[in-house]
Amino acid sequence: xxxxxxxxxxxxxxxxxxxxxxxxxxxxxxxxxxxxxxxxxxxxxxxxxxxxxxxxxxxxxxxxxxxxxxxxxxxxxxxxxxxxxxxxxxxxxxxxxxxxxxxxxxxxxxxxxxxxxxxxxxxxxxxxxxxxxxxxxxxxxxxxxxxxxxxxxxxxxxxxxxxxxxxxxxxxxxxxxxxxxxxxxxxxxxxxxxxxxxxxxxxxxxxxxxxxxxxxxxxxxxxxxxxxxxxxxxxxxxxxxxxxxxxxxxxxxxxxxxxxxxxxxxxxxxxxxxxxxxxxxxxxxxxxxxxxxxxxxxxxxxxxxxxxxxxxxxxxxxxxxxxxxxxxxxxxxxxxxxxxxxxxxxxxxxxxxxxxxxxxxxx
Length: 363
Ligand SMILES: Nc1ncnc2c1ncn2[C@@H]1O[C@H](COP(=O)(O)OP(=O)(O)O)[C@@H](O)[C@H]1O
Ligand SMILES: [Mg+2]
Fold this sequence. Notes:
globular; alpha/beta; binds magnesium ion; binds adenosine-5'-diphosphate
């Protein structure tokens, strides 16, 4: 899929604009604070993923609105796009205190839009995929699983609700009745949690296979193994951690505590954790390989080319590595948006110059 045209009004610092995007690579260049990430965020919302970092809808409304200082006057922003590729799609988002979404003229939810316009984003914080907190890794895997299966997104939301419920039970003092309900609450958690783990492990296996397939494109080749780690048997885990769980007042076993381990498979770093052994530049390239592998998986399973939204993906790469990354991204044929504070475009590459919230094509 690809965005053909987007319209943006009243969104962050972006001046009202209608932009016609290029089919393949779109490089957004401009100084810090110009609005590059804001443009990507608008595309992230239009593809059903919401604001970056879970920002509140009211934070997205432009401060430059004449009504900003008058809290009695309503403020709003609007985003819309037309997209095509495997099918046509039209998305409209109205943002006020909350977002109202429409897909092809009908009221829609985020998951409907994600299924219609699959996109994957990479934010500067995602460089931590290899060496950051397990939460970043779970989030990435959950995003891919949710794109591949709307049922996964629903079941994950239900699982999180049950975890919150059990955590609040653990925080209360115990009576016999509460003990019984605590025991009962483990049953659906174990069922849902085991299912979520199974899907995650399968998807991770597929990402790994696609990484191996695509390895020739990533120079110099990095080979990583991807392993899903968690307490092997959830039922047993609940039993084993019963006392510690009460003490910690937190659920200690389940997909919300699991992790993915990336290990180097060859070269001087063989057998070492990628997060510890690779340089920052290598980690960045490894993360790009993982994103591309996830993209290939999405393309195969959903039969729709994903859209990539990559924020500052080339930071910390030397000029050669930058060029190789851009060429690799270009060779996928997917519509890809890359932001960069400094970039030397080559002939035929379209850059967009972002300046004080305005976006202009720049050749
Ligand atoms: N709600 C808002 N209204 C107006 N300007 C905003 C809003 N939110 C953020 N900004 C401005 O957007 C700019 C940051 O844009 P960003 O896209 O992150 O820049 P960069 O080009 O470095 O990626 C900041 O200067 C900030 O002041
Ligand atoms: Mg930025």
